[in-house]
């Protein structure tokens, strides 16, 4: 197996579509579906391998209950903003419009806010550096890890069985029609092995979790 590393979220899919790759492993189902619609590609999603949970991290405030008017920074992109708001609701800090699909939740869906927390949207990559400038921040697992934050510092994390984990696991993707290739089946079998699960647990210590 030859592994190629990309530093953006477009080229892995265009290279797959152009038959420069046989599979890629970096995206979620919602992103893949949106990409296909926007670019006219024919990419199919297979098994989920891992999930990078978001965590609620303390900044200027350290308590597990926010003070009145606490400022909470969250990612500004639609998908991760919705996940962050849902995590705050799970923690009991806010309540959201009931019954909405996860990816459609926005700040306007905050229907109860007893502590009058102020939600401040920022670029996801900036959050680890900005956490000490706000009271709390909800940070993606990969950016938290890059910023030197550990899961034991988080007040709470997205759970392995959460809606976010079900919808936003990183999947193996292939060209439509290649789903039943034997080499693709073997790749998935290896990635879903006990050895890989152990590697994820030991290396990432909760910042990345297997979903198999």
From TrEMBL:
It holds the Pfam family Lipoprotein_9. It is a lipid-anchor. It comes from the Bacteria. The keyword Signal applies. Its main location: membrane. One of its GO terms (cellular component) is membrane. Coiled coil: none annotated. It is found in: Membrane. Keywords: Lipoprotein, Membrane, Palmitate, Signal. PANTHER family: D-METHIONINE-BINDING LIPOPROTEIN METQ, METHIONINE-BINDING LIPOPROTEIN METQ. Belongs to the NlpA lipoprotein family. This is D-methionine transport system substrate-binding protein. It comes from Aneurinibacillus migulanus.
